[in-house]
Write a structure and sequence with these properties.
Chain lengths: 336, 283
């Protein structure tokens, strides 16, 4: 069931305005005491709302997609765990410094598989958002993730990571405790972890903070997620000299950050379709799609020996990059 | 001091070089450390370190090679590897134009030189990043050359020394450059399993996606005095926390205090320190 805008926190995206208007009409009709007499009109209105929504979402720009990915009612890691996972057993702490709520980790069952799940958590209530630093993890978050992944490796459990972060937290404490080192170590260790790893970018894939739990055998993006080396605003502020709606939009395009673009560039393996109007309008349907992709990929990966998985994971990373060959200092135009 | 840039090309934006060259032009130069006016030749003979205050000037990859390797010992590989523009990236200027300008300015195809070299008679694989080339940013070429350097070191059982100087990942290659972080880290995992020795040398500045990948994965990590080293750039941190940063924050000495590097080594001692560690590792 597609949720109406008023059921998704009353928050609406600017490009959804025409839909909001139709929803207003639907709501007005539903409120009438003689609503039953207008059942056909209601059905028609709902159908045109759905098709309008479909049409709008088919034509979203890259910057629109960034805004969908940040929708406050978009399902988060904790929601996916609740919807996909049975018997979830959260595991806390990095055993060195603390427990970062910006990364959730735990054991659970997805479909027929016992897995370890790790994911960024942004938080829904103000209090939770502040505790999670809006999904920006500290070093202890990345270290917790790795600690639990090693546990999964030890007991032969596949690892599922859900990526949803604007970026790793930029702050004094984060630097003091070695943000760069924590991420670097995760990249190295995930590249050789002897158990299947499947990753899904469910919302924001912000740079190194996303990649810090994003090295895997299979990487998918939800249809309206983004994944980039820098946020469009960050990029616009630097390369366009200021972040404004125009430059943000231009940067979002240039960065090729959409699921479709990343798939076309061979940087992710799959795009998981979202329900009409985005995951926030039908979280259950979104969770179902994510779950079925995860289960399917784990089934494939479990057929291979851990050494084979690690070799293939390495081979895949090894190939990424686009280079040309030319004499240095040559005035020849840059290869394209 | 955090510099306020006009533009940059990396994921830690504020580190753009002010001029085109890391080292200032002219017969007389002013030391940014103590503001003394110095005779250029004298600074040059002192490995580009201020004789008054020991300020370490940023040096190009080319100069770095000359300073570190035994004379005439550097033999480059992959010199012809050059960047492409996989995303056809255009901001106020096309990426292809920025590449061409940087190539003309530096005489290099991209921001790192790799090859075999000797340090005090010991054979090594050496990589020197060049901050003059688009802020030393890591795109596909830098990632690939670093990766190949590590793999060659593994193949020939040689130590690898990487001298970093970079603002981080290169924005104009987006996820292509992001993935170089994972690629270089994965190559180091293999090298590690073979018992290879990786000495990471951090120079001013080393930030963003370079710090958060190979640079922080050294078996031994050395840093030059006062070098800025971090994940996020200081200005981004200031904007996030809305406070000014403590003196010395993210400098080499600060990282030493926090436990993230092994030694702070003045430039004049780098060669002997590196060769000593290689000796201890039995490589
Ligand atoms: Zn001085």
């Amino acid at each position: 069931m597609v949720r109406a805008s008023e059921h998704v926190g009353g928050y609406s995206l600017p490009f959804e305005q025409p839909v909001i208007e139709l929803e207003r009409q639907i709501a007005a009709l539903e409120r009438r005491p003689d609503a039953e007499e207008f059942a056909d009109d209601l059905k028609n209105l709902q159908a045109s709302r759905d098709s309008l929504l479909q049409k709008i979402y088919r034509n979203l720009t890259a910057w629109d997609i960034v805004r969908v990915a940040r929708h406050p009612q978009r399902p988060q890691t904790s929601d996916y765990i609740e919807m996909m996972c049975r018997d979830f057993c959260e595991l806390h702490g990095d055993r060195h410094f603390g427990d970062d709520p910006a990364i959730i980790a735990g054991l659970g069952r997805i479909g027929p598989y016992k897995v370890l799940i790790v994911g960024h958590q942004k938080g829904r209530t103000t209090q939770e958002k502040i505790a999670c630093h809006f999904g920006c993890a500290h070093p202890e978050g990345y270290r917790k993730a790795l600690k639990k992944m090693k546990l999964a490796e030890k007991f032969g459990l596949p690892v599922v990571t859900l990526i949803d972060t604007p970026g790793a937290y930029p702050g004094i404490k984060a630097e003091e405790r070695g943000q760069a080192e924590a991420i670097a170590v995760n990249l190295r260790e995930m590249s050789r972890l002897q158990t299947p790893i499947v990753c899904v970018v469910i919302g924001e894939g912000g740079s190194g903070g996303a990649l810090g739990i994003g090295v895997g055998d299979r990487v998918a993006m939800l249809e309206y997620a983004w994944y980039s080396v820098i946020s469009p605003e960050g990029c616009a502020a630097i390369l366009w000299k200021e972040a404004n709606p125009d430059s943000n939009s231009a940067a979002a395009n240039a960065l090729a950050l959409t699921a479709k673009a990343n798939l076309a560039n061979g940087l992710v393996d799959h795009v998981i379709s979202e329900p009409v109007g985005g995951a926030h309008r039908d979280p259950q349907a979104a969770a179902k799609s994510v779950q079925s992709w995860i289960v399917d990929r784990i089934r494939q990966l479990k057929r291979s020996k851990p050494e084979t998985l690690v070799q293939r994971r390495y081979d895949k990373l090894r190939k990424i990059g686009a280079v040309a060959w030319q004499e240095p200092q040559s005035s020849a135009s840059a290869a394209r | 001091m955090a510099q306020v840039p006009s533009r940059s090309w990396t994921d830690t934006p504020e580190l753009a070089p002010k001029g085109k060259k890391a080292v200032p032009e002219g017969v007389w130069i002013r030391c940014p450390g103590c503001t003394a006016i110095l005779f250029r030749k004298q600074v040059e003979n002192n490995l580009w370190v201020c004789p008054e205050c020991q300020h370490h000037f940023r040096v190009s990859g080319e100069r770095r090679l000359q300073q570190l390797a035994d004379p005439e010992s550097f033999e480059p590989f992959n010199e012809q590897m050059a960047p492409v523009d996989p995303l056809r990236f255009v901001d106020l200027k096309p990426y292809t134009k920025r590449i061409l300008d940087a190539q003309k300015r530096t005489g290099q195809n991209d921001g790192v030189q790799t090859g075999t070299a000797f340090i005090k008679g010991r054979k090594i694989i050496l990589a020197c990043m060049d901050f003059d080339f688009l802020g030393g940013s890591m795109g596909s070429v830098v990632g690939e050359k670093i990766t190949q350097a590590i793999l060659v070191a593994a193949e020939r059982d040689l130590p690898v020394v990487i001298v970093s100087s970079s603002g981080g990942a290169r924005m104009m290659e987006s996820v292509f450059s992001l993935m170089q972080m994972a690629k270089t880290a994965a190559a180091l995992a293999r090298f590690d399993e073979q018992g290879g020795l990786f000495i990471s040398v951090l120079t001013d500045p080393t930030t963003g996606g370079v710090t958060a990948s190979f640079a922080m994965l050294g078996d031994v990590i050395l840093a030059e005095p006062r070098a800025l080293i971090g994940f996020a750039g200081p200005r981004v941190i200031e904007q996030t926390i809305r406070e000014s940063l403590p003196e010395g924050f993210q400098r080499a000495e600060f990282l030493l205090d926090c436990g993230f590097i092994d030694r702070v080594v003045p430039r004049s001692e780098l060669r002997s320190e590196i060769s000593r560690i290689i000796d201890y590792a039995g490589k």
